[in-house]
Automatic annotation (TrEMBL):
Name of the protein in question: SAM-dependent methyltransferase
Residue ranges constituting the Methyltransferase type domain according to the UniProt record: 89-185
GO biological process terms, semicolon-separated: methylation
Presence of the UniProt keyword Transferase in the record: yes
PANTHER family in alphabetical order: METHYLTRANSFERASE (PTHR43591), OS06G0646000 PROTEIN (PTHR43591:SF99)
InterPro entries: Methyltransf_11 (IPR013216), SAM-dependent_MTases_sf (IPR029063)
Native species: Streptomyces avidinii
Superkingdom field: Bacteria
Region (Disordered): 1-41
Annotated Basic and acidic residues bias: 23-41
GO molecular function: methyltransferase activity
Pfam families: Methyltransf_11 (PF08241)
Keyword Methyltransferase assigned: yes
Keywords of the record: Methyltransferase, Transferase
Amino acid sequence: MNQEDYASEDAYAADPGSGEDAEATRRHAGEAESSRASRSWWDRNADEYQSDHGAFLGDDRFVWGPEGLDEAEAALLGPAASLKGKDILEIGAGAAQCARWLAAQGARAVALDLSHRQLQHALRIGDSDAPGALLVEADAGRLPFRAGSFDLACSSYGAVPFVADPVGVVREVHRVLRPGGRWVFSVTHPIRWAFPDEPGPEGLSVAASYFDRTPYVEQDERGRALYVEHHRTIGDRVRDVVAGGFRLLDLVEPEWPEWNSQEWGGWSPLRGNLIPGTAIFVCERD
Ligand SMILES: C[S@@+](CC[C@H](N)C(=O)[O-])C[C@H]1O[C@@H](n2cnc3c(N)ncnc32)[C@H](O)[C@@H]1O
């Protein structure tokens, strides 16, 4: 089957396709298989991801997605001045650009990622003279921190779209946050799963059911998953954060700004002006 047959894939990833022989399909993928596939996919593709998107992400900017919404303006974690002295965890941090911005605001930032290669890029980019983030290699489903370690947690397209048990991740975030702490995360806007993942006009016609939660999987000739992405509807995501012990304060759907002429996979000015591409959930711990 052809990757173009599927509605949404490679969210915010380096490039469509995981390898020459990858077959794209929709099938069940559990926690262990998803985690294993993500680790090796991001290890293999981190160099390309950082080389393709590093300039847009910036070494120490906090960008919420391909639209370019910047935390410096959006203040979804709170006003920048309020971040000073806070313990903040970034999940699925990649090369830790966001965590580096948080550290520059005076936060004690921890950047966690499953991929060793992504964290090597964090080391490469990190300037030893600038405030940095502590780097931790771990799975979002098993956070290696004591309960109540952080004031805030965030994730820009990190981990959440790739895990089979999103409520498990929310519960882990709840455990490591202090009462009243915010958990803010961005994912591909769920409506995108109904459309082909193409930046041009072919990406504007509904091609699949929005309600089909079957994961998108790229697999090798032996059926081993190379890349897995999980779809949840907007309602599912709201129920996930509530089930994990959070209140939903806001759901931000960034509009495509006039200044942004870049294409990033299926994200483009054409589609961005018509349908949302990113959903950002702003949650508060009970
Ligand atoms: C699309 S990238 C986003 C990286 C970064 N936040 C950015 O904006 O460039 C997704 C990241 O999530 C990480 N990731 C995927 N599954 C994960 C998991 N289960 N636990 C922790 N990190 C994970 C990947 O290794 C990758 O670095």
